[in-house]
Design a protein that fits this description.
Elements: E1 6-16, H1 22-33, E2 36-41, E3 47-54, H2 55-65, E4 73-81, E5 90-92
Parallel strand pairs: 2-5
Antiparallel strand pairs: 1-3, 1-4, 2-3
């Protein structure tokens, strides 16, 4: 993919986002969209993710994250630019 079409975003997702399969659903959505990056729970009850790929696919993921899986209730998302992840694929990382 052309470098100009490649974007990386860091997401901090708050609400009822743990215990509702948010991480597994995020990984499935990212893989469906061909994104790389990672997702993890945080000790404060939020979910954190970094997604990298084409601008359109990343934007689609961000829109999905505003809803999340059916059992989730997303109250707030902070989205910011991020550094490109070193790995390929999409990982579920341990809680931080």
């Amino acid at each position: 993919m052309p470098e100009t079409d490649h974007v990386v975003r860091h997401l901090m997702i708050q609400g009822l986002v743990q215990g509702v399969a948010f991480r597994a659903s995020a990984r499935a959505e990212a893989e469906r969209l061909g994104l790389c990056g990672w997702v993890r729970n945080r000790a404060d009850g939020s979910v954190e993710a970094v997604v990298a790929g084409s601008a359109g696919a990343v934007e689609h993921f961000v829109r999905w994250a505003h809803r999340g899986p059916s059992q989730a209730r997303v109250d707030r998302i902070a989205v910011s630019p991020a550094a490109r992840p070193e790995q390929t694929g999409f990982l579920m990382l341990p809680t931080l």
